[in-house]
Amino acid sequence: MGRVLVVDDERSLRDVLEVLIASQGHSVLLAKSVDEARATIATNDLDLVVTDLRLEPRGDGLDVVAAARARPEPPEVIVMTAFGTRDKALEAHKRGALFYLEKGPHLATDMAVLVSHAIEKRKLQVENTSLRQVLKDRFALEGVVGKSEAMKEVLDLVVRIAPTKANILLIGESGTGKERIARAIHARSDRAAGPFVPLNCGAIPENLIESELFGHVKGAFTGADSTKQGLFDSARAGTIFLDEIGELPLSLQPKLLRVLQERRAKPVGAVQEIEIDARVVTATNRDLEGEVKAGRFREDLFFRLNVLQIDLPPLRVRREDIPLLAQTFLEKYSREYHRDVNSISPEAMAKLLAFGFPGNVRQLENVIERGVALSLGPVLDVAQLPREIALAEEQKGPPAVHSIAPGASFPESGVDLERLVESFEQGLIEQALQRSGGVKTKAAELLGLSFRQFRYKLAKYDRLSEKG
User: Fold this and answer.
1) Does any domain span residue 116?
2) Residue 444 predicted with pLDDT over 50
3) 280-320 pLDDT, tens per residue?
4) Which residue range(s) make up the domain with 92?
5) Reduced to 3 states, what is the DSSP secondary structure of residue 383?
6) Rounded CA gap, 29 and 43, in Å?
7) In angstroms, what CA-CA distances link 240 with 32, 141, 274, 282?
8) Which of 110, 135, 160 is the endpoint of a domain?
């Protein structure tokens, strides 16, 4: 409910409005003059000011409007007018009053509706201002947004390790924001003035990736019509970010290992090596330890890359970050599309919070971009959300775990014991993540596992869900 100031020099009308507005559950303050109104506005956090236009003995309602709108977070203003003062009421509207209405037999009915509307508008404005402020404080770091315990742990780690020279490995599902974290690390490092050079190792054909990373000399191979600088050399005095490092061909891994060990590389077809002066940040959504065991990734390279590791939580275990992220993307795409979309309806936000977001932050960003593009007014509503999200139902608890109750008879058709154990174990892992707020070290403790065991099992079930 809101705090409302009623300003009128007639006691009877003040009393009527006090009873009317208080009956809606709002707290009501009273003033009988411009001076009293100014003093009350200056010393109270108000949501709404209701003022008569004519006030005796000094000043009028325009002075009250000015005092209200001068506040850092101004309350809304409703101006009451007598017959014949419509021009002055329009002037009040131009100066920032939200509504004006004429006194008459319908005053009480109209006032009840306008008060509710004004306070709701003020509430949305305050929430949006609060969200914007949160985005600027310690939960925002060079484009990385989060206030959940899981993300605070990540951001604190970024701040601590960014100034070091160590190689960093980012681990997380697709769409969790690994490149944003890499850019934050670069921005917080002593190399921030240098270039940030990203490459998705899975997006370059195997026969071209060596040239892309290390460059080549003219005539090194068919089509090499000129000498080309490699990305490692382009990132000199800066940071190179190798995304999806698990996709790097096994044949090229020894050359990357040499770069990390010797800080030197030889362009394709060259005789002389070049000096490498770039910090290396890598990322993967694979279980690299599993890849090492399978012989698809060199163990020595894994240890070189994994000097410092950051695990990025999926969006489904840090749902409290969804409003912050959604507001960030809303402001971004409202600017880009020149749309005046400034808020998300409570119903739409409830749907976003209920959805699982398998595509993580990237998917949420796409959803908000789509919503801004489709919005016809200032509020993004359920109608602008994709069908699968608009139909999402609020989760009532942790995912169901299929099992046979103790004492139940064994099914005649038998059971798939391995699948049953996996289902039960996966359910416990998800519940532990929810209980720990997405902090994996705490989840591992809840399950009595080492952190290495927990990460292995988590990666295992991620692979199973991809196959399923």
Assistant:
1) yes
2) yes
3) 999 999 999 999 999 999 999 999 999 999 999 999 989 89
4) 3-135
5) helix
6) 12
7) 67, 19, 16, 8
8) 135
